[in-house]
Write a structure and sequence with these properties.
Strand content: 35-45%
Number of helices: 1
Radius of gyration: 18 Å
Structural class: mainly beta
Number of domains: 1
Shape: globular
Largest sheet: 7 strands, antiparallel
Distance between the termini: 62 Å
Number of strands: 13
Helix content: 10-25%
Order of helices and strands: HEEEEEEEEEEEEE
Length: 182
């Protein structure tokens, strides 16, 4: 029994070290608004003294540039239990992939794509549900680790925010009222 317990502790210690050292660890954000759950699963890369956006930046070397996978590794997944309006885009309840158009690092567009389950660098524009402009701002200090947040703002409303390097991009989300179309 003692060798088995020792093995389990050793295994958990190694697993903890591996996940702590992952260059772009898995992350999630979720919010419940109007009784409906919205959730995002993504990988959170770090700046690590690199230029990320703009000409010559890390993102500019991706094969789909200027479309960015809004994270690292697998594509960023988005689930909604409700019909939504995200910015100016009508989004039916369901599962999607999130990308961002970052051709101009100071004017991003959020892309909601209908294809799901793909690797992050796989992008098919013909599967876009649509795009919407994001509101841009600058952080007080550089943001080392990429972060996405979904936060409730008022009843039936939320905000999606993407933060990394010298950029903060956000967009309003509204849950549509059942049967009203709004």
């Amino acid at each position: 029994m003692k060798p088995f317990v020792t093995f389990i502790f050793a295994f958990l210690a190694v697993a903890g070290l591996v996940s702590a050292q992952a260059p772009s660890p898995d992350a999630t954000t979720s919010v419940t608004i109007g009784g409906k759950v919205l959730s995002i699963k993504y990988s959170a890369p770090s700046v690590r003294k690199r230029q990320i956006f703009g000409p010559g930046g890390l993102i500019s070397h991706d094969p789909n540039y200027p479309v960015w996978r809004a994270g690292a590794n697998s594509a960023t997944s988005f689930h909604t239990d409700a019909d939504l309006t995200i910015g100016t885009l009508q989004v039916p309840k369901g599962d999607y992939t999130i990308y961002a158009l970052v051709a101009d690092p100071n004017n991003w567009q959020l892309i909601i794509n209908k294809e799901t389950g793909q690797w992050g660098l796989t992008y098919d524009a013909s599967q876009d549900l649509g795009r919407t402009k994001m509101t841009m701002s600058k952080p007080a200090a550089p943001i080392e680790v990429y972060k996405m947040t979904l936060t409730a703002t008022v009843p039936k409303s939320a905000k999606l925010q993407l933060e990394w390097e010298q950029h903060i991009a956000s967009v309003a989300i509204m849950v549509k009222q059942s049967g009203t179309g709004r």
